Structure prediction request, 877 residues.
Amino acid sequence: MNNTEIVKRGLARRYAREKRFQLYGRCAVMVGFIFLALLLIDIIVKAMPAFSITEIRLDVAVDRATLELPAQGELTPELLDGINYAGVIKQALRDLFPEVTSRKEKKLLYQLVSGGAEFNLHDLLMKDPGLVGPKPLSIWVKADDDIDTFYKLETVTSRVDERQIEFITRLKNEDRIRTAFNTTFFTASDSREPEQAGIRGALLGSFWTLMVTLLVSLPVGIAAAIYLEEFAPQNRLTDFVEININNLAAVPSIVFGLLGLAVFINFFGLPRSAPLVGGLVLSLMTLPTIIIASRAAIKAVPPSIREAALGVGASHMQVVFHHVLPLAMPGVLTGAIIGMAQALGETAPLLMIGMIAFIVDVPGGITDSATVLPVQIYLWSDSPERAFTALTAATILVLLGFLTVMNAIAIYLRKRFERRW
Amino acid sequence: MQTSSLIILIIGLSVVSYLTGRNRAQSSRGKGRLLALPTHYGSMTAMWSALPALILLLAWLIFEPGYLHNQIISSLPEAISSQADERVDLYVNNVLLAVQSGAALDNATIRHSANAYIEAAHRSRMILSAIVVVLCLSGIAFALSRHLTRLHARRRVEAIVKLVLMACSAVAIFTTIGIVLSVLFEALRFFESVSIIDFMFGTSWSPQTAIRSDQVGSSGAFGAVPLFVGTMLISAIAMTIAVPVGLMTAIYLSEYASPKFRNSAKPALEILAGIPTVVYGFFAALTVAPFIREVGTSIGLSVASESALAAGIVMGVMIIPFVSSLSDDVITAVPQAMRDGSLALGATRSETIKKVIIPAALPGIVGGVLLAASRAVGETMIVVMAAGLSAKMTVNPLEAVTTVTVQIVTLLTGDQEFDSPKTLAAFALGLMLFATTLVLNIIALHIVRKYREQYE
Prediction:
């Protein structure tokens, strides 16, 4: 048997092996894609219920007798403020179902509507006292979150009583129940009640935190990149700085949180839970990203431009600030946006510095207590109420939306301004 | 004056001084040869006015709280200030609270101290404002008194700018030092109360310290071995998924796929790396974990609802793009000549890959895998949301385990005093985590760099 025959005998097996190997490769690529698709689909499906909310129409009696207002005279804000709105809403519910008399059933009936209904009515009357009169006011109020989940998903859970299901069926027959777009999700802040909870506070918290991050990390990052790329002498110290930057890029984010807690909060006494501290911690985290991207962009500017500027008498500093930096700016900004996107999705270090407090107020500045979008996701995913799962998924969609936009801008910048010399 | 209004004042004065300096240089153009552009003279005047004032302001802001703290203590009656440090601190906090919110002002001692505090704070601010204004103005005056034709304004300005650039690049060093010092100091304080041997080799972890010192188990147990085991277990699961899948993806994309497919598949896979970890955590806790539990129960296995497997799988998927992009880089760096040589000898493509390319790229791949491992060890949100809290010593992936990062978060997110061993334990764990990832990173970066030099 000569060599050719030996080779030929093995060929079929070798080709089969080749095919199999290629198949493994395809499968590996597919695994990534399938997981990505599953993740997105799962979150979108889970998020859908959060964008709509069930509302119930009540005919609220708003005559002066029922509201316990004086029969005559002007309706001052103090008078309107003192009305027992909860009682009025309950009365309206009892009017819908006159046959409900027992204590237990009444309680079930009252649980149909959200606890926020009385505040809606309060705001409505405060805005327009002219509504007070003999004509009953027909308003849509939000249903309680358990009722909402039941009505939207049509699944029976232990949290909805059978008697309540009867109520809902009757409301449906009388055209008194509907699902509407959930604007509360975008206009309200965190709440213990899912139907009253929204992401506005977290959005603004993220905004303030990112502002601090951007204002600190962009100038410092660019300056560091310029120094290392243009001015730094080749010595041990410069090497040490470079090693540090590369290492910092790989330090677990939670360690930065420990740094923030020990240094910014305990040593410098900055306020806990504030976007100021969060922003500082995140800027330390994003600095390596920005420095590395900026250095690459500065390095890409061809030496001919530097030499031309030096040739007509510019100083080194003028060359850098008048010519190199403007040409490198698209690359620098791309890096900055990617760094900001990372910072926007970061959670762990912010838990360390106390941004997980339950905060109802919308933060008005960088020293107010605040929470951010990813932390809000973490907080809500821990809540036992089922409706919070949908809110969590919806918040994730909002967060992913922001990340997509930021990355799209980065890609656009890169494509639009990238120059090859 | 408030800090913000002081800063605005300094900025305003420096703008004025910039304009003055520039105009002075411009108007003296005919009188003699200037050594720099008028804008340089302007910048130099502005720097003289702003920099000393800003440096003073910064120093003041750092030292002011300590000074005020001492003022409060000295205003306290002897009976209180001679007590233990913690009691005094409590008292000081009460005073600060009284100043901020007006609470507890009915207490005469607190009211007295609060007034002393307010007075001291007021005095400190007055002095600060005065010095800042004087510094600004004298800086301007000094800059304007210099002779224009003998002043190298550009060189001065550029030297200062260069200093600022240098300081910015030093931030990286300061960050590292800050991390090391902050975790090290707190960890050392922790090791004063718990011996380092018990911490490193103890097998029982239950950090619930009791409120009263005479309660049973008041000291808590701080043996971190179960945490290390849990971290290893979850990271190992993650790596068994990420390494084969990531490596095969890299091989397929760099050796087999058409350029068109490669250009669209690569960014699509990078999306996996861009998704925030909290999203993975949500997916792991609410979708993957229940699914695994259901499957497990249906074939008769008992699966914990917070199994290590769920967290590990999801973490593995998160790391796939990390492994694949690092391996991709090293595989493409293997010289084409080696490929051509192997193919010319009659080897199939898969044989070339297995026998030539992978061995050649192995150091780089190992470096990438180590970097990915350090990622897995330090990953927090997935395990916080999907792994459990019970510190069990087990290698069964279907049971709930806890990790170092989970414990750090749990220990630090409750409301407790900063000095309790419980919070300090978090810093000791942080030190272990930082040291582990640092060693992994340094080895990995070293290997990667060395490998790169080989073919360049």
